[in-house]
Design brief:
Blueprint: H1 13-18, H2 25-45, H3 50-66, H4 80-93
Helix pairs in contact: 2-3, 2-4, 3-4
């Protein structure tokens, strides 16, 4: 799969607010379009082949939708993209 490149922009509060509702398909599509390439790039940088990196993208995104992981993100502890990078690294390690 081909993902849009990550533009290293700061995460807008509107993106995170929109995905608090798992049923908001347009918000999730916007989030996916913004961050799937970032997640994929981290997985590839950590040495995974493309197919495995694709799987990591799916696992991370599914974990955010169904696992309630976003509720644990605390903006006061750092940037969202760094929090997401730690989640990707954890998935790759497992």
């Amino acid at each position: 799969m081909t993902y849009a490149p990550y533009r290293n922009e700061s995460t807008r509060s509107s993106i995170l607010a929109g995905i608090q509702d798992p049923a908001d398909a347009s918000a999730w599509a916007r989030f996916f379009d913004t961050y799937a390439g970032y997640v994929f790039g981290i997985a590839r940088h950590r040495g995974l082949p493309e197919a495995d990196a694709d799987e990591i993208v799916q696992q991370v995104m599914a974990g955010l939708v169904h696992g309630g992981a976003l509720a644990r993100y605390d903006r006061t502890r750092g940037a969202f993209h760094l929090w997401l990078a730690r989640r990707v690294a954890w998935r790759v390690a497992n």
